[in-house]
Design goal:
With 437 residues, this protein is mainly alpha-helical. Helices cover 77% and strands 0% of the residues. It has one domain: MFS general substrate transporter like domains (Growth Hormone, Chain: A, Up-down Bundle), CATH 1.20.1250.
Length: 437
Amino acid sequence: MIASDTKPTLKSRLAAVKQALKQPTSWLLLALGFSCALPYLLVGGTLAFWLRAEHISLTLISFTGWVSLLYGFKFLWAPFMDKARLPLLYGWLGQRRSYMLLSQIGIALGLVGMAAIGPHHMGLFLAAATFVAFSAASQEIAVDAWRVEQTANAADQALNPSFWAYGWRGGILLTDSLILVLSKRMGWPLSYTAIAALLVIGVTATLLAHRTEVEQHHTAAAKTFRELIVDPFVSFFQEHKGTAGLILLTLALYRLPDYLTNLAGTMYVDTGIDPDAIAAMRAGVGLWASLLGVAAGGTCLLVFGLQRTFILGALIGPVSNLCFSCMSVAHGNLSVFGLTLLADNLSNGIAETALIAFMTRMTGRDHTLTHYALMYSVAALTGKILKGFTGLAVDSLAPSLGLDNAYSAFFMITAAIGLPCLILCWCLRQKGVFSER
């Protein structure tokens, strides 16, 4: 864990940032964030575009989204990745990077498998998608651990999540919008194969990275079941005595409204927006808004500190849901679409950067990978389970409200979920959680 600052000045923080920018860590995180983002939507929102093009129902599409539940169950195999060593690869790359490389190879093979099988063989297709999701979640576990162990001060706390998020946003741009252009011209299977080839960027970053200082000082492998499985989880609750439950509950709700926007892509299609227009708007307004959002998140961390930025993220995160609600009854108006993308990417950029910084602060260094995976799993699991019912909810509302109004009502309801999270953030502040470490 990083040490908390004793009221550092903005000048001292900027000096620390300047020094941190001279190190390779942040720049490598650009590539690693990009690599982590590539498979994320290909088993989620972008997969919904492919399935909808094959005339598959919204209900079935949203249920297939449960493939990405594996992201929420990272904690189940994180302890093995934290302590168990891979034969051959460990001696060459060490603990973190060996799992990064193995996961990246798995993602590429899984995406090629999805392209070769296609959704008309749904059982095998979902099996390949599940393998991609497992490999992708494993890559994130290893990258998160490497990033957390490279975070030593407030400058790293702001820079490392920001650089990772910039890389992530680049990957999301590619798989969220540009792939729509590719799919229209060369088909979905070739588009997925092309994305698989881009995993070479993550592989290159993995090979260029170095072992963390924490990893070098913890060379002993776990020898018993207790050391491997029990101790990592017990240590989290011991380090956060009296507040561990509150921390996990807050994380479970923090990004929930955003997870429940998984039908935004199908809403675009159902409101009659052309795929080329969707891609152009996302690549234009969406790109610049996301870059601005990440920059704003990093700036807020430096200027206002973690506590205020985290609370701000909880406050503005649900704004995008309200914008989607308005867009669904705007009948394909591109101006409303542009404003929605602006609000969505700006608010989510700040909220996501704050969330990563908060989980980094709460992570112990003796069991880095397991602590972070536990918090991420809690933050993701609720949303990933509930989003499987979003299509059913909209389909149920549509007969009485009409499809457009059903979308609008649904997104408005999901925005209200952000209110309990604000109350929990206030409780965290009262408990002094933000000043820990």
